Amino acid sequence: MKFSTRSRYALRLMAELAHGSPDRSMPLKEISTRQQLSLKYLEQIVTPLAKAGLVRSERGSQGGYRLTKSPSAYTAGEILRAIEGNVAPIPCLESEVNECPLCGQCATLPFWTGLEEVINQYLESVTLEDLARSLPSPLAPCRSAGEPPAACPERKI
């Protein structure tokens, strides 16, 4: 299974929101700058996160996005599923009932089922709070004056 760039960026976006002050909304422009990501791309990514109820937007001069619950209440799996949909390693496992006509005689189905279980267990074991811990303080300087943004490797998730 290969996760999309959208999923990787969604985790980074959510980690920034989790790391920010819970008392204020964070503009996407701020996240874009801190994570060195395209603002237009973040605008596309935040839409399914909002539709899934993981973030909410606030308008006005102090507007932006904020989490809808505590960072410890989110899992990486919940965030990835909001972006990717099902994260099953093969199409046969994407629905509750395996409708593959060969499932009763498939020698590899137990392998794929086991892999799916391991993936889901790991995705559910990592919280947004865990991811946010790896970010530097929002007030910590990322780079010295005149250095390019790439001089901030500690921002990578």
Task: Give an overview of the whole structure.
This protein is mainly alpha-helical. The protein has one domain: Winged helix-like DNA-binding domain superfamily/Winged helix DNA-binding domain (Arc Repressor Mutant, subunit A, Orthogonal Bundle), CATH 1.10.10. 43% of the residues lie in helices and 5% in strands. The protein contains six helices and two strands. The protein has helices at 5-19, 28-35, 39-51, 76-84, 109-125, 128-132; strands at residues 55-58, 64-67. Strands 1-2 form a two-stranded antiparallel ribbon. The longest helix is centred in the C-terminal third of the chain and has 17 residues, at 109-125. It is elongated, with a radius of gyration of 18 Å.
Outline:
This protein has helices at residues 5-19, 28-35, 39-51, 76-84, 109-125, 128-132; strands at residues 55-58, 64-67. It has a single domain, classed as Winged helix-like DNA-binding domain superfamily/Winged helix DNA-binding domain (Arc Repressor Mutant, subunit A, Orthogonal Bundle).
